[in-house]
Amino acid sequence: MNSESNIIYTESFASLFERLTQSDNSISSLDMDVPYKEFALYFESIEAYLSENDISKDDVVSLECQNSLSALLVLFCLLNRGQHLLLLPAQGDPFKSADFQPDIPKFCKGAISVSGSTFTPSDITDLIHIYPNESFDPVALDKLNLNGGRLLLLRTSGSMGDAKIVRFNQAKLLGNASNCVTRFGLKSDSRITIAVPVYHQYGLGAGLIPSLLVGASVNIQEKTNILKFMAHNRSFEPNIVYLNPTLIAMLLNSRKSDQYYTRTVTASASLPTKLYQDYRDRFGPLINLYGSTEMGAAATTLLGQGGNTPSQLMPMPSVKMLIDEDSQALRCQHPYGFDGYMNAQGDTLPIITNPYNTGDVAKALDEHRIEILGRQDDSTNRSGHLVHFTDIQNALLQTEQVEAAVVLCSQQEVVHGNKLVAFCTPKKTKGDDISSQSIREACFEQLPRYAVPDEIILQDRLPLAPSGKVNRRRLQQQLSETQEVLS
Amino acid sequence: MNAITERLKDIIVSDLDINADRTTLTDNISLLENGVGLDSVSVMEFISIIEEKFGFEFSDDELSLEPFESLNSLSEFIAQRTTQTQPLEAAVA
């Protein structure tokens, strides 16, 4: 790890794009290929179009940024001119009706969306749609306090309800990207497939921008599936791929032959160890990235021996991971982290916890590495010991009697604290010998008494959320319903 | 009426959890965007079920968009693939 330097990155997007014009490589989709050398032509015509529409680089605009070449060229042009920018996922048809009112904060002058997949430098502007924000408020813009720094605003993934707007300085995005270049081993002759959305930190900060920093060949995929992925794979022949966990599972499931990628990068807090290891066996070094919208790339698994499970991580260069001794709460000190959250009125809300609280619990493995144990709310105190549900779940799997296990805490009090309930599916190969009792008995060999679940509920299957993960909320509901019946 | 196409419709309606309406499944409907609209997970499941029910495997090169352009094209592809493998199966038996 000594080769990873701690230099603070100083290049700007303008100088990055200037440098890219020296490259013979290109960015491509299934439909077309745009050489980096031609970027200047596109920038010139998009710039002119923005000026015609009265968008100055000191305005804040939103961009619906899907993984299409046309949208990316607009993104690059905006970054190149130093535009203050809010990145949004694509929301329906990019071409809206004439009276369309974008749902964007008051400090944004307008919303930009981009349609179409083939174009030339002269007609790309036909694909750009600019919708003025009728509730634009110059006072809100003033409150942003934009002195010098160029703004990049990202929305959190918001799987838990309300998405927040996260405020970044564009320079920090480049610093975060340079960390990723080092850690992922990206080079100018790399051929990089990005099959994850670029309006998120992962696709943008850890995938796309690092690829541009080294001038690698990039292939971008939109709404991909195994058929599209394989079509891109044949025509582009990547050696580095960015995949979400669903695509990882698809490659393992649908592909009959193996293929060696120099690197595969994924980002998942709940990647099953078996999936992670099976992928490494068939497709080469898989790196699991740990981070968030707020932090960017914070840590990754290592290649070789040190990275055998997806939750054992090495912090990125110059990132400090701090573990609270009592609660095991994991905090992250990141030189390229966010500057705060924003509300729609233009107020920047202060960062309440500094260093940033990740919401996860972790333990130190050695001087450098940490292991993520789970979410802070996925643990409970039993007889004075902090018990992590993931530890119990792993112990249940070790009994070799269960296929899958989810541990929950009920409101009911038992002698050690809140009652621990484990929902398990029996291992089919073991036949009828498995009972709640036999599983619980086996737990005593794996776990200290206070961590043994008080009740094992065996059922044929666990409810799944649309994402394919176990639906914990449904199980929690099931639990409170059965308790009501009992009491 | 093409027997393979009808079996594919059965699979889409009964085996894929996508709430598909059989009456909308015309023979030339696209299976992906602007048609049945199978999402990425359903595409993977569909492939596995086809492999199981028709007794052949998609090679990596056969995992491509063309066969999935319509129910008809997929049906033709499967017909071709299964006649190719039948003599082999007979030889094994």
SSE topology sketch:
The complex is a heterodimer of chains A (487) and B (93).
Chain A: H1 13-20, E1 26-28, E2 33-35, H2 39-52, E3 60-64, H3 69-81, E4 84-88, E5 108-114, E6 128-132, H4 138-143, E7 151-155, E8 165-169, H5 170-184, E9 191-194, H6 201-214, E10 217-220, H7 226-236, E11 240-242, H8 245-254, E12 263-266, H9 273-283, E13 286-292, E14 296-300, E15 312-315, E16 320-323, E17 329-333, E18 340-342, E19 348-349, E20 356-364, E21 370-375, E22 379-382, E23 385-388, H10 389-398, E24 402-414, E25 417-426, H11 436-446, E26 455-458, H12 472-486
Parallel strand pairs in A: 1-10, 3-4, 3-5, 4-7, 9-10, 9-11, 11-12, 12-13, 25-26
Antiparallel strand pairs in A: 1-2, 5-6, 7-8, 8-18, 13-14, 14-15, 15-21, 16-17, 17-20, 18-19, 20-21, 22-23, 24-25
Helix pairs in contact in A: 1-3, 2-3, 5-6, 8-9
Chain B: H1 3-15, H2 40-54, H3 71-92
Describe the structure.
The complex is a heterodimer of chains A (487) and B (93). Helices cover 28% and strands 27% of the residues of chain A. With 487 residues, chain A is α/β, with parallel strands linked by helices. Chain A has helices at 13-20, 39-52, 69-81, 138-143, 170-184, 201-214, 226-236, 245-254, 273-283, 389-398, 436-446, 472-486; strands spanning 26-28, 33-35, 60-64, 84-88, 108-114, 128-132, 151-155, 165-169, 191-194, 217-220, 240-242, 263-266, 286-292, 296-300, 312-315, 320-323, 329-333, 340-342, 348-349, 356-364, 370-375, 379-382, 385-388, 402-414, 417-426, 455-458. In chain A, strand 13 and strand 14 form a beta hairpin. Chain A contains 12 helices and 26 strands. In chain A, helix 1 (13-20) crosses helix 3 (69-81) and helix 8 packs across helix 9. The radius of gyration of chain A is 24 Å and the shape is globular. Chain B is mostly helical. Helices cover 54% and strands 0% of the residues of chain B. Chain B is globular. Chain B has 3 helices and no strands. In chain B, helix 1 (3-15) crosses helix 3 (71-92). The interface between A and B is medium-sized, with 20 and 19 residues.
